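Lab notebook page, bench 4
Experiment: in silico fold of construct C2
Operator: M.H.
Input chain length: 320 residues
Purpose: comparison with the prior construct
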Amino acid sequence: FLFLFYSCDSNNYLEIDGYTMGTTYSIKILASSIDENKIKNDVEAILNSINMDMSTYIDSSSISKFNNFPLGIKYPLSNDFYKVINFSKHFYDMTDGKFDITINPLVQLWGFSKNTHLEKLPSKNQIDSTLQYIGMGNLIIQTDKTLTKKRELTIDLSAIAKGYAVDELSEYLNKINLKNHMVEIGGEVRASGKGKEKKNWIIGLQNPGSINFDLFLKVPLLNKSLATSGNYRNYYDINGKRYSHIISPKTGYPIDNNILSVSIIARECMYADALATALMMFNIDDGMKLVESLDDVEVLYILDDHTISYSGGFTFTHVK
């Protein structure tokens, strides 16, 4: 994972770990009184509900049913599903289509799906014919919480669902007055209140440019989220060229730039999750401009020459 977490030495400290969305999750809570069994049960119920909406790995999930649903017919969405779809459309518009939840046919074509493996590079004809199924503009989202396909396509929320689940768990803990906590799913983090010794939570950021992904930076978080997207763990090398799992919905090809990773600090983890994914497809100058146009959002890039570039409000210290 991209993040390491500093544990808390407190008598009133609870840590919950488990598996969800094809990865691990971790929740750390500091409080004077904690009902451990209730929290664990509620956390599992929240995660199960989100998975039954948004996991393409579950055949009976809402997203799997929608992906097999016929054209032109309204598909009813739950509140969670509707919220994430609307947010995805906001990011699709904001990034000029670079963030696109209909990208999955290209992911499969390039061998990065759960049931595929790349034997040889796709041809230009294969890419061009697949591109006709890509584009969130082919979805009709209506206020009656329904979703309709204008043409044949499938959706995949893997670039945003973990962030949404982190937010939901954090909001749940706040509602039951456990305001000092940190929630992490697959490296996406939201920190609320204070950590050990009543200080900000400290999140460790690993260096993707080092052989062992050494701990690189310490990032303090107070009521903020941190998410990272990178192309250094999931890729193919074919004929001496590296092909990233991050594929442009515009060109149909894996991105090819000097960015190893993008880390975003934002209030909501869903926001940070989606923006980190999208900014992998921008050049740094354009990505910085976009971040600077947004309220209360910061970015840090790690580049393939081991240098970093970051916005003015991205606070960190180097690990000695």
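Observations: Residues 138 and 287 are 26 Å apart (CA to CA). The radius of gyration is 20 Å.
Next step: discuss at group meeting.
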